[in-house]
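Cast an eye over my tokenised protein here and flag anything odd:

===
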Amino acid sequence: MLAFLGFLTVVLMLVLIMTKKASPLVALIAVPVITGIVSCAFFVTDPENAPGVINFAANFKKLGGFITGSSGIGSVAATGVMFIFSILFFGILTDAGTFRPIIKKVLDLVGTDPVKIAIGTAVLAAVVHLDGSGAVTFLICVPALLPLYDALGMKRTTLAAIVALSAGTMNILPWGGPTIRAATALGMGENAVAFFMPVLPAVLAGLACVLVVAVFLGRQEKARLGSVALAGKAYSEPELSDDEKALLRPQLFWVNILLIVLAILSLLFSGFAPAVVFMVFYVLATLINYPKVSDSKGRVDAHAKSCLMMCSVLFAAGCFTGIMKGTGMITAMADALVSIIPASLGRFFPVITGIIGMPASLLFDPDSFYYGVLPVLAETAEGFGVSALSVGRAAILGQMTTGFPVSPLTASTFLLVGLAGVDFGEHQKKTIPLAFLVTLVMLVVAVVTGGVSI
């Protein structure tokens, strides 16, 4: 019953969001709370001291703890802090006019060809994601590219989709979270690179596929905007109001650029959490650009709406994951997923795992999948003479790699859609089929090259 409730929770939430029957904020809270209450009649209250005993009233009292605990809101609290101060940091630099000359220069270099811009987006996201952090990739790429997309009238969903695909594919690298988890679960934690190398050709094929998709999306944008309109389109700085002009700090352009560079370097190499980095650089940006208390308060007020919208959805996602984990629904879903695979298909476990990996990102967080589902799949496969490592390598081609930037179980997904200013459901509808395509391409190449054997 817990497995049924878990799948029902995910399906209802996705349907409500993607059909726009409910906002992501409402769906992420309402659906798991309702199914969580129902689940109180089905999970064991105290498995250590009273195995097999179910107490609805006691379980109901635990729901609040599931929501606010380390698996719920507690797991996203630091990310929420990062959201707030990253928005304020980039908001202040935008208000100061830092990005205006950059946008004009980039447009002068790439022209107004959406295809070139889309390819550049994919390459930039791939390079930035070499550090393996989705949050850092989105924080660097989206604020830099969004004004360019807006200037040409390109869809923001296109930006979000390309960045997501590129970052997702690069997330397979051996220092990325999914690969490390898979290697550890299969006893190769100290040899993650050796575990990864057989699928390197598949990853390269995946990156090539992302570039092809970027070209396709760029051509779609070019056709939608019209070649004539694009040819006659030149970037012109929008007319600013007197209040906006008063906020500009052109004399501080290079100082602000230095702030951005230092912030990026700190994110990549300092070892400090992104929340700490943005707290510090927000203070520096404020003191440099708007030292007057009244001005700094005004900047916080101006960006408060964006902060509230992003953080509220993030904490709602914490509610969702907290209930799903705490009630045991995710564990039950994992057991059910394994049980429905017929024994006769044992030799095809790697292929099956590769196919379900990306969609499974919508159902399982990486810890639950790699430490819960993967060992069972791998052990079962070995019983049919299939290498457990092949199952693991197939899994990393989709589960929380290409799947992580569309999953409601990852905070960085909401960072991406929040920074891009796109609807979560619209992002999923556009990106999920493309992410699944990239996964299938990588899986086919991996099977052909022997990275995944059957």
User: Anything to note?
Assistant: The chain has a mean pLDDT of 86. The radius of gyration is 23 Å. The CA atoms of residues 182 and 370 lie 6 Å apart.
